[in-house]
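Heat-inducible transcription repressor HrcA (Helicobacter gastrocanis), 266 aa
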Amino acid sequence: MGVKKEWLLDAFIKTYLYNHAPVGSESLRLALQTQAVQISSATIRNYFKRFTSEGAICQSHSSSGRIPTTKALKDYWRSKLTLSTPLEVDLDKLQRASESYGIFSMVERYQKATLQAVYNHAGQFLILDFGNTQALLAYNKKLEGFIRDLIGLECKTIQQLALSVCATSLAKQIDHLYLEKLYFGLCVLGQLAQSRGAQGLFRQILEGSLLRGLKQGLHFEKVLPLGFLGVLCSIKLKGEQTRMLCVGGLEQDFEGFYGAIRGLSI
């Protein structure tokens, strides 16, 4: 695909995402004109024929305009959403952007809590004192020795160390007490739940198991219903690194969304 052809398809998809409406040759010409790009409607129509034959765009049933195909949108987002560097995210901006762009977002973060002391209760229970909150575990001598070495550490660090040595009861208790789930744009999940067979997926998203089970990157129909895009990326909240899952229709402006939540363009 030539440079000009790639560029024009890119501009076509951007125009579609911005207007959420089929794009005709004249409307694309006018959109490009605002960017000081001069190209005739006839030239655009010729490219439309090539894009159609290659499966990148198709005719809209409701108008004479064209819309990008699912394949074209997936290729577009693969090229645009690299997100290799953790984003510094503002939660207020994230809430507003999720609503305005129609994209669900979920963030998990650990509350601040430091293990201050460990108490052996009659050889039956271990009481972990985090100050304002206490965690209770069944007594185990090896576990007690392990936990006593963790005094002074933050709960997030303790959870990671617990998983590394298969102390799952400790890791689960930390998650139960201190792992906070933040949801934005929940109405989008309502649309997803209406898709056939997506009820189980809906629960996985809300419970956080999908976020913790996915690899970082873009996810399409192997994970989500056809026509949806999920993006798992690393973010920073006030300097603390965590992960964020975003889900929306392929036709939603993810590029604008990520620019809005960090105040910078991608």
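The CA atoms of residues 15 and 31 lie 7 Å apart. The first strand starts at residue 57 and ends at 59. ok done for today
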